Every structure is written in structure tokens, then in C-alpha cells.
Amino acid sequence: MGTESFERTAVVVEDDSDIRELLVLTLSMVGFNIIETASGRDALALVREHRPDLVTLDLNLPDLDGMEVCRQLRPETDAYIVMITARVEEIERVLGLEIGADDFIVKPFSPREVRARVAAMFRRPRSFVDGESAPGEGAATTKAAEADGDVVVHGALSVDVEGRVARLNDEELPLTKIEFDLLATLITGSRRVWTRETLLERVWGEGWTDDHHLVEVHIRNLRKKLGEDTREPRFIKTVRGVGYRMMPVD
Q1: Is 1 within a domain?
Q2: Overall pTM > 0.85
């Protein structure tokens, strides 16, 4: 991740003092200003007060379950939320992602893993904010986006790529960062079939190409917010055995 030229803030929520110290040290070394707590209830207040860029959130907190903390925070913050857990059951992973967690890190973990995952998350918005076109897309798609001030229109759906706002029938959609990045990728390359591997690399960064489940869970969440019927999709079509693409506009 390297040394940043500006300071980011992270709230570390962990009741195990040794693990909390490891997270604080690891994130401090890559330029984060750290606010730490062992309490889920305190975490809610700290995030609301300091508006951090990153929250690491222990799943098993003594006063308020990490899932509940995440559920309450997600509508209020666009911070990346990384859940830290020693429990690896699939249902917990799915539930965490569905309520807005951006990633899971399983105990025990190494400082290198934390740095790599955080670095990958903070790379996600830059490709769109910088106006970079999606990989493999030709000039026609890029020009179409630029022609309307970086707002891409697809039927009743519009995506302001630079402003990071998506609207359906002129109503803003409450998308998480990952959901927005997936939608922006799909819509700026609407004629392309996007494989799960390509979406993982594009949205999550390098080193994620084997975790197809991440894509499937977040696409499902995105479809819910778009009011999609997967049997008769209006916007996102599953290309069986390959990945996803946008439905043609009538």
C-alpha cells in the first residue's frame, strides 16, 4: 500500500487487546490515523463522530454483535467495513456481505494479508473517479460516457461515474461502494459479457480471482436494490457459466 501523501482514518473495533494492537500497528504503518475501541456501542458513536475511511469490526463483540454494528453503520457511512472473525461458517460470510461488509478477514491473520486487502479496497473507486475506461472497452463507450458529463444512461437507470451516484427512475439508489463499482463496470461496458474473474480483478483488485462467491453475493444485493426479477431481468443478465452483462435497452 505504501506511504500515502494524505492521512486516512480507521476505527479499529476489537475486544482482544493483542489483536487490536496488531491491527493498530499494521494500519498505522501504512499511514492511517487510528481510533480504537473494544465496544460495539462505542464504535457506533466513534464512526458517527469521526467519519473514518475504514472500519475493522470484530464479529464477536461483548456488548453488541459485529453484524448488528455493521447493519446500523452501513446506511450512515461509506467507509470500507472489514469484519474480523474466527468463525468461518458460510452463513456468516453471506450475512455479513448482505448487510454491507466489504470484506472478511479470518483469524489468525498476518499483517501482510491485512495490508493487501486494505490496499485492494482503496484501489476500487479510483478507476472510475479518474475517468478510466473499463478494460477491453473501445473508445465508443468512453465517448458516450463523456458526452453526458460522465453520466451513463441505460433505460431508466443512470450512473454518474465521477459523482458516484446511481439513479433508477430519477431516485438515488443506496448502493455500497462495491455495488456501485460493479454497476459502473457493467454499465460502462454494457455490450460486454463480464466474467466473474474479470469483475473480481476490476472491483476487488489483484489476488481475488478465485473468490467467485464475492461477486455472486454482491450482484444479488445489487439486483435487489434495482428491483430485479432474476427470472426476467430488466438490467443485469446472468450469462450461464461465464458471468454477467447488461440487458439490451429497448
Answers
A1: no
A2: no
